[in-house]
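Fill in residues.
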């Protein structure tokens, strides 16, 4: 992509607060963007070949949305965690194995999409994020869901298409969790905490494609309580 094209994009971004450059084969984050650190509210660089997010990302202090789906990121810089206004972070289809230690400082974060990466556990850093609504960790390599998950504030947690065979009973203590997606994992029925049914806020539990028949779920103690929540939610949105 020529400089003149980039210049045109930068001029537009200065006026709109949105910089979008997708599917252009970029191998690195455009350095010229740092001229717009105080303008930009949205950066979308999806479907490129970016391997590294530079530390200067931490300077975009007004950024609300960062979209880097389908790139080649293997790690995120700690500087990303300085983005105090960031509400939406989409990182689908990269090669991330973990999140920066300071990730819990992204206090405005509402939507986090990490589908199709190489995470092996539910990152504990997510538990400090009080405004988190939706967390998508589908299509990773997660094998178990640790005790720290009980602190998660999300309303929806998507763990579809992982390798999960164990889930901490603490998941039923999540204060706001309404939707839990666990489709296509490696769960035996005995490994599904019954408290999810009998004693949680969860009103939609999706568990198709595991190592048990769905009809067996209906025989578990607490299933009727779960169905009450499920039906009440359905009525609310009907």
């Amino acid at each position: 992509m020529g400089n003149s094209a980039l210049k045109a994009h930068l001029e537009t971004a200065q006026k709109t607060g949105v910089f979008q450059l997708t599917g252009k084969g970029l191998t690195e984050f455009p350095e010229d963007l740092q001229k717009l650190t105080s303008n930009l509210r949205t950066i979308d660089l999806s479907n490129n070949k970016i391997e590294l997010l530079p530390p200067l990302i931490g300077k975009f202090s007004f950024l609300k949305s960062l979209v880097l789906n389908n790139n080649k990121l293997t790690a995120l810089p700690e500087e990303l965690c300085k983005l105090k206004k960031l509400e939406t972070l989409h990182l689908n289809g990269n090669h991330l194995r973990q999140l920066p230690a300071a990730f819990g400082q992204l206090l405005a974060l509402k939507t986090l999409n990490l589908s199709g990466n190489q995470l092996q556990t539910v990152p504990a850093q997510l538990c400090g994020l009080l405004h988190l609504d939706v967390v998508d960790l589908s299509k990773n390599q997660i094998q178990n869901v640790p005790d720290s998950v009980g602190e998660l504030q999300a309303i929806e947690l998507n763990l579809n298409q992982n390798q999960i065979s164990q889930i901490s009973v603490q998941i039923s203590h999540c204060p706001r969790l309404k939707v839990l997606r666990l489709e296509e994992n490696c769960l035996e029925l005995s490994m599904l905490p019954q408290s999810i049914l009998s004693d949680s806020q969860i009103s939609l539990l999706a568990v198709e494609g595991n190592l048990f028949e769905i009809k067996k779920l209906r025989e578990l103690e607490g299933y009727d309580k779960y169905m009450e929540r499920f039906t009440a939610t359905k009525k609310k949105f009907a």
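The radius of gyration is 20 Å.
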